[in-house]
């Protein structure tokens, strides 16, 4: 059974195939008559809406499940919820606090599990991000991206996706918020060209894209004050974008905490592609789901 918990559950060729599926104008109806359960332990605007529309466009029926409804590991164990939902649905998507929750779901091996964001990864976001850059920059081989800020779930998935497509990945953030060593090994294993910079100005010089995400992710609210202090100097503002150069585009997964990691001028400025990125969440999700259904059938994992 093929799942999608992180970008490198696919190889580089498969990511390229998914992006082709995402760009198809005719949608295969390969979820016709099927359901997809969408469990959310955290809030969402883009992920929920893009997933529901993607499932609908493939002929399927999405069912949104509020955190308190199934109560993962509270009302019922993660394993039992997975088994139950697999009786009705041919796929399960989950936005969770702990990455281990989606791993436990996948271990049940009943239906494909799609990670809709965990503390470690946000792979659907990364697919939308590279799709956006392909549309804006063309072939991504040899292009460059700098991520400024927190070495978090969004960055981890983004770095793998960009590296798979041949991009040079740069990072600049406070030392204590850099990517852990195990992830650097993972990037190296995935063949990603990755470099860290202490100076954000140096890091963005001449890059094709500048990316940032919030300093305080969902679930880290109690660390807000300490994080604000640590991330001082890592805001993406006009001055920093000027260091990047006039051809550089700006990306953000959203929601943005305007005035913290990014200023209004940048989010609403000429370089910004954040709304194209948001729309691409739906195209990327549809591409991934359609590809995954075909792949599982091809490999004999079809779930009825
Ligand atoms: N980018 C993203 O995942 O947005 P939501 O949290 O609104 O789904
Ligand atoms: N890093 C953020 C991304 C939100 C889409 C979070 O996990 O809250």
Low-confidence stretches: none
Write down the overall mean pLDDT: 96
Look at the helices and sheets and give the structural class: alpha/beta
- What would you call the shape? globular
Q: How many runs of DSSP E, i.e. beta strands?
A: 9
Radius of gyration: 19 Å
Oligomer: single chain
N to C succession of SSEs: HEHEHHEHEHEHEHEHEHHEHH
Largest sheet: 5 strands, parallel
CA distance, first residue to last residue: 13 Å
**Residue share in helices?**
40-55%
Number of helices: 13
> What compounds sit in this structure?
phosphoric acid mono(formamide)ester, norvaline
Strand order of the largest sheet: 7-6-5-8-9
- Beta-strand percentage range: 5-15%
């Amino acid at each position: 059974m093929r799942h999608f918990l992180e970008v490198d559950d696919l190889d580089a060729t498969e990511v390229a195939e998914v992006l082709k599926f995402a760009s198809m104008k005719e949608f295969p109806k390969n979820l016709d008559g099927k359901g997809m359960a969408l469990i959310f332990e955290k809030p969402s605007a883009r992920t929920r809406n893009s997933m529901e529309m993607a499932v609908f466009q493939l002929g399927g029926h999405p069912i949104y499940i509020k955190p308190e409804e199934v109560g993962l590991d509270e009302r019922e164990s993660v394993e039992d919820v997975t088994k139950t939902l697999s009786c009705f649905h041919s796929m399960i998507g989950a936005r969770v606090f702990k990455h281990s929750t989606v791993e436990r779901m996948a271990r049940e091996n009943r239906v494909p599990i799609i990670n809709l964001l965990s503390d470690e990864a946000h792979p659907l976001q990364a697919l939308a991000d590279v799709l956006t850059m392909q549309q804006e920059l063309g072939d991504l081989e040899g292009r460059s991206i700098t991520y400024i800020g927190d070495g978090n779930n969004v960055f981890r998935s983004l770095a793998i996706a960009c590296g798979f497509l041949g991009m040079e990945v740069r990072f600049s953030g406070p030392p204590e918020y850099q990517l852990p060593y195990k992830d650097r090994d993972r990037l190296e294993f995935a063949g990603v060209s990755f470099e860290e910079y202490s100076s954000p100005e140096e890091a963005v010089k001449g890059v094709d894209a500048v990316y940032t995400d919030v300093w305080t992710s969902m679930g880290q609210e109690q660390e807000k004050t300490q994080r604000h202090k640590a991330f001082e100097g890592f805001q993406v503002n006009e001055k920093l974008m000027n260091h990047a150069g006039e051809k550089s585009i700006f990306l953000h997964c959203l929601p943005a905490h305007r005035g913290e990691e990014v200023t209004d001028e940048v989010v609403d400025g000429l370089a910004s592609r954040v709304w194209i990125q948001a729309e691409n969440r739906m195209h990327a999700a549809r591409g991934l789901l359609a590809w995954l259904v075909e792949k599982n059938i091809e490999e004999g994992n079809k779930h009825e």
